[in-house]
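Saturday, quiet lab. Running sequence design on the structure tokens for the scaffold JK sent over.
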């Protein structure tokens, strides 16, 4: 994740200097600006995919924990539940 943030910061930091070189000094061409835009968009897309993958992993973990909790609580409830025959007043033999 740090790699993606550093790549994004590099693109954002170099963008104004590449624009200045192309437009004010006439020393470069539009390819410099295009490359910096490409770097920003690629690293932004990679960061977005990492964020989505992390959210999916967190959601899966949360749903797994909720499922395990439900299984354990139902098992405990079954252990402590009285048999239905005792509730009606009949004896269990």
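Result came back. Writing it out in full:
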């Amino acid at each position: 994740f740090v790699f993606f943030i550093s790549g994004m910061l590099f693109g954002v930091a170099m963008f104004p200097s590449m624009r200045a070189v192309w437009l004010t000094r006439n020393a470069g061409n539009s390819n410099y600006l295009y490359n910096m835009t490409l770097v920003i968009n690629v690293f932004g897309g990679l960061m977005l995919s990492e964020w989505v993958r992390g959210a999916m992993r967190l959601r899966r973990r949360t749903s797994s924990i909720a499922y395990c909790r439900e299984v354990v609580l139902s098992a405990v409830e079954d252990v402590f539940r009285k048999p239905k025959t005792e509730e009606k007043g009949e004896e269990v033999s």
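Notes for JK: The two ends are 65 Å apart (CA to CA). Helices lie at 2-23, 30-80, 84-87. Ask whether to fix the surface positions before the next round.
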